[in-house]
């Protein structure tokens, strides 16, 4: 049968054989990636090796003989790191950073108040009292009570009521005793960092010890109000993997940025801390020997 798009088949057609010979000898079009093939005229042509040859691959395609496969290295761009960024990452042979130190020297020994809460294999990293801003409220109350007592004493002296003067003095002693208690409580309140955990120890008569292992700290941040930025104190918030958290929010800690770096370094770079401690110990021995 003839082609559906051609004329109907006619066995008596005199031009039928001529048309069939022309159709059999008509060249097949060939396409190439780089334009028409030579000697093919102006019509579209196909390349003989399309999909099989080793022609130049497109951008991002692997030269593996297969089309449509992208080479991941072809699209990778090497990141550019400045010398200033590299300066903070370089270390010497002992593991000590070559850049400027951003944390204060570590304390050598814990105080007698803290030493009783550390087990023998635990390495002490430092302890901090709360910022003096923590005493603002009791100090202001004490100063205000002193001024009020002075005014009442002068007023009651002219009224000849010694009993009320005695009561006012007793009230003043009570207020000042409360202020002294708050100051003592501030003195015994410590935030402690070791290579295993963070702790808060407070209380004078009833001692409270709260701790959180560093391995369980999932998130840590510190907050500074405008006043905190002016006087260099802040509030630390620790998030743990557990539900019940004995230690979560610690207010009015001094030097929050310094303390933040200290805790983060202990969590993620304990080898650097050990290397710095070892180097400082060697320098101290060398100075003593000299």
Keywords:
290 residues, alpha+beta, 9 helices, 39% helix
Textual characterization of the structure:
With 290 residues, the protein is of the alpha+beta class. 39% of the residues lie in helices and 15% in strands. The protein contains 9 helices and 7 strands. The chain has helices spanning 16-24, 72-75, 83-87, 112-115, 136-159, 162-188, 226-231, 256-268, 270-289, and strands at residues 124-129, 190-194, 197-202, 208-213, 217-223, 233-240, 249-254. A 4-stranded antiparallel sheet has the order 1-2-3-4. α5 runs antiparallel to α6 (162-188). The longest helix is centred in the middle third of the chain and has 27 residues, at 162-188. The N and C termini lie far apart (112 Å). Mean pLDDT is 75; it is low at 36-41, 49-53 and 59-65.
User: Could you tell me the radius of gyration in angstroms?
Assistant: 42 Å
Biggest β-sheet strands, sense, barrel: 4 strands, antiparallel
Question: Could you spell the SSE succession in H and E letters?
Answer: HHHHEHHEEEEHEEHH
Mean pLDDT: 75
Strand order of the largest sheet: 1-2-3-4
Structural class: alpha+beta
Query: What oligomeric state is this?
Result: single chain
Helix content: 25-40%
Give the CA-based shape.
Answer: elongated
Q: Tell me the total number of β-strands.
A: 7
Strand fraction equals 15-25%
Q: Extract low-pLDDT stretches.
A: 36-41, 49-53, 59-65
Spatial separation of the terminal alpha carbons: 112 Å
């Amino acid at each position: 049968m003839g082609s559906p798009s051609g004329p109907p088949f006619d066995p008596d057609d005199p031009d039928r054989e001529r048309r069939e010979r022309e159709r059999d000898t008509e060249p097949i079009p060939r396409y190439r990636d780089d334009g028409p093939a030579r000697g093919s005229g102006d019509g579209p042509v196909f390349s003989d090796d399309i999909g099989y040859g080793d022609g130049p691959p497109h951008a991002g395609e692997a030269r593996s003989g297969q089309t449509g496969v992208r080479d991941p290295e072809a699209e990778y761009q090497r990141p550019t790191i400045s010398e200033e960024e590299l300066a903070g990452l370089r270390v010497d042979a002992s593991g000590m950073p070559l850049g400027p130190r951003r944390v204060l020297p570590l304390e050598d020994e814990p105080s007698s108040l803290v030493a009783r809460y550390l087990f023998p294999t635990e390495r002490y990293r430092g302890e901090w009292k709360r910022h003096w801003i923590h005493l603002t409220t009791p100090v202001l109350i004490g100063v205000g009570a002193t001024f009020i007592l002075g005014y009442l004493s002068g007023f009651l002296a002219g009224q000849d009521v010694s009993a009320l003067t005695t009561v006012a003095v007793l009230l003043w002693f009570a207020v000042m005793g409360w202020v002294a208690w708050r100051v003592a409580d501030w003195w015994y309140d410590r935030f402690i960092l070791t290579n295993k955990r963070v702790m808060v120890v407070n209380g004078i008569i009833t001692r409270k010890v709260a701790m959180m292992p560093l391995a369980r700290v999932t998130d840590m941040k510190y907050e500074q109000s405008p006043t905190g930025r002016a006087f260099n104190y802040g509030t630390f918030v620790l998030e743990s993997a557990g539900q019940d958290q004995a230690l979560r929010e610690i207010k009015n800690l001094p030097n929050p940025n310094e303390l933040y770096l200290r805790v983060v370094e202990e969590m993620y770079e304990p080898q650097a801390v050990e290397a710095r401690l070892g180097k400082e110990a060697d320098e101290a021995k060398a100075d003593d020997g000299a």
